[in-house]
Specification:
The chain has about 120 residues and is mostly helical. Helix content is about 55%, strand content about 0%.
């Protein structure tokens, strides 16, 4: 799963591409702002909950959280996140615990490398 970390920033998520897909007009801006707000509103809390579930060996719960998060973030076109989340879900489902990335700290909290953000509205 480490190959996902080497993708360019644009491969993670690009608002411009989503805008073009939605029509690149005022209505598209409103729709994109709503989609992005819904997608990022919970912050890293879903990742933290998944990490705690993994730590507590509640793998089905972790998979459920990751699946829901993947669906939400996938609406943004974040292909890198979708691929990494699916790989993690499958590793948990198949019991391949050595493939579960070490993105979670000792208390099951997500380690984020938050960089600069583009303001949408």
């Amino acid at each position: 799963m480490t190959s996902y970390a080497s993708a360019s920033d644009e491969a993670i998520f690009c608002v411009d591409k989503l805008m073009q897909y939605m029509g690149d007009d005022e209505r598209a801006i409103e729709n994109v702002v709503k989609i992005v707000r819904d997608g990022i509103g919970p912050g890293v809390e879903p990742l933290n909950l998944a990490g705690e579930a993994i730590r507590d060996e509640k793998f089905m719960e972790a998979r459920r959280i990751l699946h829901n998060l993947r669906a939400t973030i996938g609406a943004l076109g974040a292909k890198r996140f979708v691929a990494a989340s699916l790989a993690l879900e499958l590793a948990l489902q198949e019991g391949r615990m050595m493939e579960v990335p070490s993105v979670y700290g000792p208390r099951g909290r997500a380690e984020t490398g938050a960089g600069p953000r583009r303001r949408l509205a």
